[in-house]
Input
Amino acid sequence: MRMKEHHGDRSAVSPRDAVLPTVVEYLPRVVAAAGPGARRAYGTYWDRMAAAWPKRPLGTITASDVEALKQAMIASAVSRHNSRNGRHAGEHVIAAARAFYRRAIADGLIDAAGSPAHRVAKRRRLPGTRRAFNPASCVRLTEEGSTIRWQPITLDLADHLREHADARGAVLPTELRDRRNGRTAQLA
Output
């Protein structure tokens, strides 16, 4: 292989790479072949790949390039209350790159071993932070107009409420109602 300058990118280019489409040229074919779920999940990341490597033929992208894009996505991920510090954005960009290169393999443009996205390790997903509904972690609220509803609370708040009730000499209810099915459960 010889080194060739690609609009500011230094990339290894072989004679076969010269006939491969660029990421920008090939992306419309990938999008057209993808289903609506894949377009929704990966569309943003495919656009980022096209912006990062617009003039580069498919064969010139390396695993290091995919890893660098992953790190850029992690760094630019929006932080929310349930954030995993961009970890899932990193996972998604790898999945999007793998889907992109799977299409190139299926179209016969590159060999399976030539996919840089499949050479980047994808870390194991962390367990979810959402938990199943537990009627024991709810409080019964009586609102205006005698409307009754069950409000989920954290276990920490439930402990504090129990301590507060004990300190005031309150009597605990003898039953709880599961709001999902309306059944009543006896408390011990």
Q: What stands out?
A: The CA atoms of residues 138 and 152 lie 4 Å apart. The mean pLDDT is 79.
